[in-house]
Structure of Probable alpha-L-glutamate ligase:
Amino acid sequence: MDDSLEPLPGMIRFGWEEWVSLPDLGLPALRAKVDTGARTSALHAFDIETFGPASAPKVRFTVHPVPGRDDLVIPCSARIIDRRTVTSSNGESESRYVIASTIRVGDESWRIEMTLTDRSTMASRMLLGREALKDHITIVATDRFQQPKLSYDVYTTARVRQAAPNRALRIAVLSREDNYSTRRLVEEGEKRGHTVEVIDTTRCYMAINALSPEVHYDGKRLPRYDAVIPRIGASVTSYGTAVIRQFETIGTFCVNGSEGITASRDKLYAHQLMARHKIGMPNTAFAASPKDTQSLMRLVGTAPLIVKLLESTQGKGVVLAETKKAAESVIDAFRGLKANFLVQDFVKEAAGEDIRCLVVGGKVVAAMKRTGAEGDFRSNLHRGGQATVVRITKEERETALRAARAFRLNLAGVDLLRSEAGPKVLEVNSSPGLEGIETATKKNVAEKLYEHLESKVRPAPVKRISKAEDS
């Protein structure tokens, strides 16, 4: 019992069944059976998995708080305080994890311990044993609901999201590299009390079936993560997005979905998608026939022109052709290699500078100006470019947000050019690096990402049905 909570004077009447809430677990309404014959209390739980360090282990589990509503799933996590063998009334013994939580009944709250077990066949999702009952509770064994009634209707409204506490999450970062971005994601997540595991995408494999799709890793099934943060390298886009699709099938929240990553990596499709959403970009042309060089160049404009390989990343495979003849030579050379490429108008007034806007959850959380190295028209930091903090205009902000929305990305690096005709989007990056922008802006971008992620994994309300079990 919590010593800070003073009991009300007199006795509290409990029937053999009462409405309770467990605010620490985000369960605002539960029906509990009161059983003084049982010493320990028990909570219905499934998908029970431990996580976190051995010195402070936690347990992640999910609850169906409303009998018969398997579509309502409340994910929970708590610190493990013990493990006990519990013998049920039919003589079967089960080893269970023990957690602690505040219980609220009417106007009273106190701390109780409870074990986690599958009570899916029981009408009451919780059992209150005698250890959980305060000294001034008296049991009226012939009656129910002596205390104020609650309603399952709370799970059909936004209140179920508001009731969810900030809990410890189990998060996977899909990454093959031990770089600044991956380290920052682990560091920031652990600082916020989460367990963050780095998973090499190429070492994942999948069990694809209708009943229980799974992701395996090094011979074992991966646990049920609360969220996945993809850091998929360009060289493994196809396999990486297949792994993300599998997590999506399971129902795991992925910061960026497989469709958005695939679209952002296909430069031709990316430009078509932006055109469909009327997002400003440099004039762009693409063709497959080697006879169309002149027509291709005319579609874009006069030299200088940019010729860009479709598979290019970090400025590699991007060539500036300063004259018409140079452009013809570059295009013919790329065609000779049977390479797919785009031809784009060169925005002269950008003067080798672009702006990287980092979008998280529909907000631009940071922006930097990147300037190319001496004599280089490309502004990529990987190629020696310099980054400084920049103040963006309202139009630039709106353009970056529209671009991220077009690709359905919760995390996006949108690269803009400042042209005389307004901002033009060069590229939308679905795995933007954090080092350059955090260093230049002194902003904690990883923190913003976790704030968004934490809001997204809160439980969603379910549709109300006419015959709710609330009596």
